[in-house]
Amino acid sequence: MTAFQLASRLAADTEVIAHWPLSEVLLMNDRQYPWLILVPRREGVLELYELSREDRLQWLEESTRLGRWLMDEFGGDKLNIAALGNQVSQLHIHHIVRYRDDPAWPGPVWGKLPAEPYSHSQLVAVQERLKPLKNLF
């Protein structure tokens, strides 16, 4: 069996925040939105239905806890959860807190505006804010 490896594009565009029982929790490097990504550590899995039943149930629990925590912490108007995979085929599920006044509202965030990377100090601050995620499981 091949060891899990994060897709190179995800590795380049994100920061690792936590390691949960099934998934890597990643922060998207775009300061315009609170945007985290769950990546199940299962090599070769492209679609959610390819996970085992146990892994799907674990993913649902992780997604639910992440979504609730994000909305409690960031107080958004809506939580977008999506698994597109058109540019990165490795299964990864976006969790994006949306606000009625965010730059892409009410449309999807993809293709609306270029990403605005965090500055070093902003990244340090958001990583500190996200620290409780390390202990959510």
Number of helices: 3
Helix content: 25-40%
Count the strands? Answer: 5
Instruction: Report the CATH topology name.
Output: HIT family, subunit A
Task: Tell me the name of the CATH homologous superfamily.
Answer: HIT-like
Biggest sheet features: 5 strands, antiparallel
CATH architecture, please? 2-Layer Sandwich
Question: How many structural units, i.e. domains?
Answer: 1
Structural class computed from helices and strand pairing: alpha+beta
Beta content: 15-25%
Overall outline: globular
Radius of gyration: 14 Å
**N- and C-termini, Cα separation:** 26 Å
As residue ranges, the low-confidence spans are none
The main sheet orders its strands as 1-2-3-5-4
| SSE topology string | HEEEHEEH
Average pLDDT figure: 96
**CATH top level assignment:** Alpha Beta
Write up this protein.
The protein is α+β, with helices and mostly antiparallel strands and 137 residues long. The chain has a single domain, classed as HIT-like (HIT family, subunit A, 2-Layer Sandwich). It contains 3 helices and 5 strands; from the N terminus they run H-E-E-E-H-E-E-H. Strands 1-2-3-5-4 form a 5-stranded antiparallel beta sheet. Strand 2 and strand 3 form a beta hairpin. The longest helix is centred in the middle third of the chain and has 22 residues, at 53-74. The radius of gyration is 14 Å and the shape is globular. The model has no long low-confidence stretch (mean pLDDT 96). It comes from Hydrocarboniclastica marina. InterPro entries: HIT-like (IPR011146), HIT-like_sf (IPR036265), HIT_Hint (IPR026026). One of its GO terms (molecular function) is catalytic activity.
